[in-house]
Structure formats: C-alpha cells, structure tokens
## 1
Amino acid sequence: MKIAIVIPTFNEAKNIVDLIGELLELNLDMDILVVDDNSPDGTAEIAKKSFKKNENIFVLLRQNKRGRGSACIDGFKYFLSNGKRYDCIFEMDADFSHDPKDISLFLEKIPKYDMLIGSRYLQKSKIINWSLNRRAFSKLANFYAGLLLRIPITDYTNGYRCYRYNVLKNVDFNFVKESGYIVLAEIAYQIFLKAYNIGEVPTLFINRKRGISNLNFREIWQAFKRITVLRFELLKNQFEN
Ligand SMILES: Nc1nc2c(ncn2[C@@H]2O[C@H](COP(=O)(O)OP(=O)(O)OP(=O)(O)O)[C@@H](O)[C@H]2O)c(=O)[nH]1
Ligand SMILES: [Mg+2]
C-alpha cells in the first residue's frame, strides 16, 4: 500500500525530526509532507536540512500562521495533485500525541472503510497526561458536535486520521469556511453526507511533552460557532445541488 502523511507544524522544532525518524522506522511505502507556517523556531528549515537526502519527505512552507485545518487542506491538495497515486492519505500532529505505531492499526482496517478516525474514546483507547480541563473540554466539544452533526463516531476533534485517496478527492475544500481545528469536523461531515463508510480505531493519545500548545480561546469559540451552522449550511447545499 502506498501512503501519504500530512503533518501540520507550528513551532515543532523539538519534535519534527524525531517524529519523522519514527515514521521512517515503520518501513512503509510512504511520502511525508510537513506543512509549516513559517515557525519562528525554524521547524521548516530543520526538517528540510535533516531529510534533504530523502526523496520521500517534503516541506511546504507557508508565509503566515493560518491554522491547523488550513495547513492540512493544503497538504491534501499537494498529495492529490502531485501526479502520484496513493492508496490513502493520513493526517497527524507533530507533537507525538499521535503514536506512529498506530499507523499499522489504520492500515489493517482501512480496506473495509473509506475513512478512519483515531479515536480517544473507544474502549481500548487511552489518554495520557491530559488535565481535567482539557478532558472536560474535549468531551463537551464532542458532545456538541455529535448532537448537531450526528455522525456515528466518538471523536470529532482528534487529528489522527486516514482517508482513502478517492474519498479525499471528493471533498469540496472550497466549502470549508474555517481554518483551525474545526476543519476536522467539517471534512468528516462532508464525507458522512456523501454516504461514505467512516470507522474508528482506538488510539493512545499522549499529551505533548515538548514544545508549546497552539490551542487558544479564539479557536475554541470559532469551533463552536462553526459547528452550530455547519449542519444547516451543508444540508442546504446538498439539497440545492
Ligand atoms: N501549519 C500549522 N500547523 C499548526 C497550526 N496550529 C497548530 N498546528 C499544528 O497542529 C498540530 C496540533 O496542534 P497542537 O498545538 O498540538 O494543538 P493541541 O493538540 O490542541 O494542543 P497541545 O497538544 O496541548 O499543544 C501540531 O502539529 C501543531 O504544530 C497552524 O496554525 N499552522
Ligand atoms: Mg497537540
């Protein structure tokens, strides 16, 4: 199976080289794209320099910080238009919250699905070192998204995912209005409305050990606002087409 992995980064200099190192150890037929928003800590430069001899690792440098979701979308577009044909495309965070070893779980299960989400809320899942606040907020966000969007999934906001190439090709990225974490829910909802088969795998989620968080209240507010109107906008759109 030929796979592609999109890794959005902002100030991940302390993580990116080790993470790509661990991914390479999996020995898969794999291209990796780091989408960096001109991180002040030099993430893009470090990634480029460290892997300049590896022709499967690419860095897409954007000039301004434009959000995790928009970085992933640019990454997906890159892999959907580079002339190569992948079986599936992954997205994952750079801060080791997403264990590279879980990729094998996704690959075992993806033949039966169109898209798989690494979930923190299945019986075999585990969350390590998350504060009570973060846990409560994540639960609330998932409850709210579930109430409005009603996709049969347990984790709307974990950015560890695997999409079949053709499924991602069918997503209308122009319709995605926000740029942060909520893009995860927007893309899942589009895929759900197209009647694709979405599954989940249990993941081990570990709170970041190195580097600083990019999550802030502005993003959280953006996410709640967007979830509230998303269902109605997309359903209306589907009805009109
Ligand atoms: N390119 C790009 N990547 C981003 C941006 N914001 C966050 N990221 C990356 O997206 C991933 C998730 O962001 P995190 O900062 O880990 O957010 P979080 O997981 O909610 O919060 P913590 O893990 O607690 O820090 C990481 O790989 C970040 O480097 C952004 O604006 N642009
Ligand atoms: Mg994180």
## 2
Amino acid sequence: MPARHWFPCAIMAMVMMPVALTAQYPVRDGSVSNIAPYLFAAADFGINPEDVTFTKDIAPILQRSCQNCHRAGGGAPMAFTTYQETRRYATRIRDRTAIRDRMGAMPPFFVEPGVGIQRFKNGNALSDEELAKIQAWVDNGVPEGDPADMPPPLEFPTDQGWVLGEPDLVLRSIDVTVPAVGPDRWGDIGIVPTGLTEDRWVHSVEVREINDIPTDAAATTVGGRYVFHHMTYFSGVLNEDGTGLVSQGRVWPVHEIGRNADVFGDGVGMLLQANSALSLSASHVHSTGGQANTGHLEFGFKFFPKGYEPKYTSSIRLGGNGIDMDVRPNQAGQEFHSYDVLTSHTKIISFEPHLHAPGVRMCMEAIWGINRFTLNCVGYDHNWVKQYLYEDDAAPLLPKGTILHIIGFVDTRADNPNLADTRNWAGSGRRSVSNMFADLGQMVRLTEEQFQAEMAERRANMKDKNTYDIGCPLCWAPQVIEAATATGGGAP
Ligand code: HEC
C-alpha cells in the first residue's frame, strides 16, 4: 500500500502550488491623519436612515462592544448604558468608531477590515452595517425610539470582575505605592509562591490591577487610571527555603495596561510547575498625575483538568527587535521590516504588535514559495497594547520554511497624539519615548503529523477548491503519491 502524504519538502510544494497569490499588504503612508474615516450609507444595507433609533439599533451595539468598559466601574471614563448617558457623547461615538482601525478608534480593536484573517476570539469590532447605523443615528439627531425596544440591561460583576470568569488560582503581588507626581520606577517586586503541589497546565491567564484610584476620577489617558504600566514575569521552581527560584521556567505573556487576557486555546497550554513561584522581575510603575496611589496586580489562572496533557505548548514569537532602530523626527510613514524563516511547521495563535509611542500600524505577511500574502494589518495605539487571538480554525498554519515578514509603521509628527517629541531623532530603548519593533504573539510548533492533521481539518471546512484559506498555503496543495520512489523514479 503506497503511503500517501502531503508535500514532504518545500521545493516540491513551490513547483506545484496551484495558485499564485501576491496580495501585498495595503499601502498606506502609515500616518495617523491621512486616512479618511469609514463612512457608510444606511440605505446600502436596506435600512431607512430615519428608522434608526437608540433603543432598537444602537443599544445592542453598545452592549456587545462597549459596555464591558463603558459602564460604572468598567474602566472607561464614561458609561454608555442608558440613552441619557450616551446621547451627549453621540458625535464622539460616531467619530471614534468611524476611524475603526487607527489610533484612537473605539472599540480599541484595530484590525483592518478587508485584508487578511478576520476571525478572532477576542474580536469586538463593529461591522460596516453597524457603523452605518451609528452614522445615520447621529445625522438624524440621535432619536431615542420606542422604550419597549430597549434590550434588557446586561449584568456586570460588582467588583472589577474577571473577563474570563472566576479563575482556579489567583496570585497577588505586593502593594506598590506611587507618589502624586514622581519619576517612573522599574524593577523587581519579588516572588509569589503558587502553592501548587503538582504540575498544572494553564488554559488561560488574566492579569488585573486593583488600585485605590476612584473609578470616576477624571483621567484623560488610560495611564491616569492605573499604577502599573507593565509587568514582565516568569515562573520557576522554588528553592529549599522558599526565598528564590532554582531555575527559570516559562516566561508568561507580558501584562501591559490595556492588554487583554491570554487564552492559549484548546490543545495548547503553558505549564505551571509543582512547588513553583512567579517571579515578578520587571515591573514598570508610574504616578497617575492625580494623587498618591496604591495598587497591586492579581494573576488569575484557569487550568486544564488534572492529568491533562496538551497537544502543543505555546511559546512567544519574537519577530523584529528593539536594538538598532533609527527613527527620524517629524516624519510620517517610516517603516521597519523584519524577516524570520520558520524552522518548523507553525500554527500562529496570536498576533501582538509591539511598538512604542511613535507606532501607528503593523502588518504581518507570510511568504511561501511564489506566494506572498498578508495575514493581517492592524493599527497601533500605544495606549492599547492589544493581542489579537485567532479563532482556532482561522489561525495561520504555516509550513516550515515560510518567511514571516513583519512591517512596523511609525509617525513622529504632531498628528500622533501619543508622541512627546517631534523634534529629535530617536533610537531604540525601553522607554515609551524610545522605540521597539516586535511581534510578541504566541505560536506553537507542529510535527509533520500534527501539521497534516490540522490541515485535514481545515480542508473539511472548505467548501470547494475555489475557497482559499488565508494563512494555510498548503491547504489545497495537491497530494503527492510516494509510489514514485518505489520504482526508482523521482518525485514529480
Ligand atoms: C476595552 C475597553 C473599552 C471598550 C471595549 C470601549 N471603550 Fe471607549 N473608551 C475606553 C477608555 C479607557 C476611554 C478613555 C481613553 C480614550 O479616550 O481613549 C474611552 C473613550 C471613549 C470615547 C471618548 C470620549 C471623550 O470624552 O471624548 C468614546 C466616544 C468612546 N470611548 C466610545 C466607545 C464606543 C462607542 C465603544 C464600543 C463601540 C467603546 N468606546 C468601547 C475604553 C473602552
């Protein structure tokens, strides 16, 4: 019985790929201001603009995409739970949603529509039709509509809540107090024992800050609402007297202000060992500009069931660098490029652009043989360091040898509101006013069998040969029959 298998090597695949895609990432000058807002006419969606009301059309959008932040105690500076609360912000709601994928957009989810993969676990982007409704509603003088159409209010946890639900294990850092006004501080804030007596595989981790800043405090930036800017941390096994770690284990996804929780996905896990501790090795804390404040971090872990062995372990991809950047003053559209060759078959779990204050956009391309296609382009706002978690069946499945190309865009003109200085050259560095250019997303390495099995699942979901699965260049590659080798002939 001749073994049937998919391309065993890159050369054959390149020769036989049936489609040649050269969809380059869309050219934009990468500046904050030079892109028109996304405007839509309600009539194009079969909607009479005059029929659009708050209770029927707008409230459901706010509930789904805004209220987890825009509610009492939700983190955003104003609530959008009732008509009265919302109507005075109507114009700003229209404007901030219409910029959609750029710095300052609301909701803060900056994936550019119409290019690359569009299915994310944590996506709360608005559709074209929803933007059309918001725009029609504002243009028609924000009518309230029939109160009977109002959806029942959502229920929110009374404390700050866990986005992913109650964790199995919560670990707490020490309290950190910052003065009303003072310099930023970096450094180690100690270890936190996990208390685990056996190894546990982690399904998701969420980090939240608990502080004494009043939830209704006037804050014009997100930084005014939090003490911690970020925390880089790892876990490892405790030494005998419990004062330090004998070895460094996993580096966990960085906690950053505005960043979302990490769900590693089914079949993917990260290990928290028995008798381990978290080492909170690199915190960055800052004054909030209001008064002296105290805060701490809580790390909430959800576990896979005991005894579970995940198929894959996740690791952080690091495309780009923060070493030798050369950022010119007062100039839009500056680009940075990094190319990495994948040394094994790879499933990309998430895309996490990391730039600093000058950053405005990042794209990720996969180059495979004669194919070059854009996996995603996303806007960047240094107030919101976002991670984009692909749906399991939409995550890029890239063969060994693929070149991952990351493109970062920075804008150092005054149009970029996150920028402190338009006049001076800036290099690389850890401060937000210096620069980094990296993709901190998660990936898993796949064996040949795992790669084939994942592709077989994709193919089963694809309707016909005209469907192209972005990010899976070999999904429709023709099969190769190995019988040729048995008769001494070469592969086709
Ligand atoms: C992840 C949390 C989060 C989500 C989700 C979110 N917002 Fe916001 N929003 C904020 C924060 C924090 C601010 C204040 C900082 C800023 O302006 O960027 C803000 C500010 C705003 C402002 C500016 C108000 C002003 O004073 O100018 C508007 C308008 C707004 N949001 C609308 C929305 C709408 C509409 C949605 C949903 C479609 C939404 N937001 C979703 C957190 C969020």
## 3
Amino acid sequence: MKLLKCILTENDCYKTGRTIKPQGVMVHSTGANNANLRRYVQPAASTPGQEELLTALGTNLNANHWNRPGLDVCVHGFVGRLADGSVAAVQTLPWNRRGWHAGTGTSGKSANDTHISFEICEDSLTDPVYFQQAYRTAAELTAALCRNFGLDPMGDGVVICHQDGYRRGTASNHGDIYNWFPRFGLNMNDFRAEVARIMSGESEEDEMVYYKNLADVPEYYQHAVAKAVDRGALNGTGEGELNVSEDLCRTLTVLDRLGKLD
Ligand SMILES: [Zn+2]
C-alpha cells in the first residue's frame, strides 16, 4: 500500500484540536463519481513536502478540496487515484483527532467520538479493476490502523461502514458502502475478513505471484483477464506488459462468473 500524508490543516475540524481514543475504523465512500484524490486532498502552502504532494496528487483547479475553512466535514484519510492513475491512501488528519464524518445516530451518540474514518473515492461504480484496487488498499489501510491501535477487526462494531453505524445508532442515515461493494459481490463481512487475513500475514504483498504477459497467465484465468484487457479495464504498464497479480486474476475470474465483465 502506498500511504501519503497530507494533513488538512486549513479544515475547521483539524483546527478544533479535539482528540479521541480510537476504538474502531469507519469506512465511507464519497457518493460522487470522481476517483481522483486531488478532488478532496490538496496541500496548503505550509504543508511539509507541498511540491511533492502536488506532483503526486495533481492540482485541483476547482478549489473545492477539503483543505479549507467553512466545511462541516473531515475524515482521517482517503483512498483513490493519484495523478499517475495508481491507487493510494493518504492520511488527512492525525489518527487520534476527532473527525467529522458520522453525524449523530438515533441513539444520540456519534462514531465521531470513537472511530477513525476514511473515504474511498467512488468512480462510476462499474469498473471492476478500480474497485478491486480501492477495496484492497482500503483493507490494507484498515489493517494497518487496527495493528497500530490494537483493534480486533472482527470485534463487534470495530470495523464498520457508515450505514453499519446508522444501524447501530451511532451515525446518520447514509448508505455507504452498501451502494458499491455488493455490486461486486462483497459486503462488510467480507471486508472485515480481508482485514483480518492481511493482519495475520496470509496475503503478504511479497508472496504475491505476478504474470508479465497474457501468455504467462494460467489458462484457467486467461479468459477473464483477456476480457478485461479487451474492455480497456486493464492496461498494464503501457509497454505491452500486463504485470498482473494472481490476486487480480482470481478477482477478475470471479467477476467474469458474475457477468460483470460483459
Ligand atoms: Zn459516509
């Protein structure tokens, strides 16, 4: 996982300086078709590494990012596309800052007081490759946070999404992430299990098998991978090389079975 740091110091949420003792992680998705991190995350003039961050993120010319005063929302991180198109995570608040992401639930309580939060930038919700990359990065970020704060991702109410929070009475009634994950056959139980798997070291990045070209891909994956290439959903390195992981091959094969690549 690529993890950048660009704290939104101009956001009023940051400026309040209130802190929490993190007891969980709340996953959000943005609800808008824009997968680019630069839509939400931009460094201020005073941000350490401002130039490098701008190069990595790309410049938001619409001035509607979240690193400015007057907004009533702020999260601890984002998952989305960098300027080069790759998917990364970026930290946008100190992890123990009290975020503004959950609103208040029917119990009168708020996950703002208990949960670290991040937004996954939504695209059109139809691209299986972006979904797989964003889902994986979100799971890796959650695993890292659970490790840092000694949290059990399978514990009751620990790793939840915004809609889970609503059902538990600790967040406003937003649908995320159930507007997205189920389109690719996954839900928050799958996500929690993926986080636990990553934490137990079962799916270490360096153990992952990569295939350079379509010809190197095992026959049982080839049909689905070729379909993804045909659809333009898989471009590889741009020099005729795919460099596709076995993990992604497997995901594409499942998606193909679900008819998602047609
Ligand atoms: Zn949300």
